[in-house]
Amino acid sequence: MSQYAFTPQAVNDLFEVWSYIADDSPEAADRVEAAIHEACDLLASRPHMGTIREDLTTLPVRFWFVPPFRNYFIVYDPETKPLVIVRVLHRSRNISEILP
Prior knowledge:
Elements: E1 4-6, H1 8-22, H2 26-45, E2 62-65, E3 72-77, E4 83-90, H3 95-98
Parallel strand pairs: 1-4
Antiparallel strand pairs: 2-3, 3-4
Helix pairs in contact: 1-2
């Protein structure tokens, strides 16, 4: 059983990220997707590693950039078991409009 779970919105985000990148390179899209899953595994074992961003949302979530693809970040709830991945977003998105 996985130590993390995606919300329906995060599943959609991951699909959109993969599809956008795959338009140019399916192999690159696979690498980004794999990096996202690796980051989620790491966060599941150390959920308080991420950053709290009260300037972006009032939700009790943390943010973690996906290494080495730092244009993407994971928004997650560190207090859940399994770890809930709330969103997977590109840094250029207007986060304060997306998250309450």
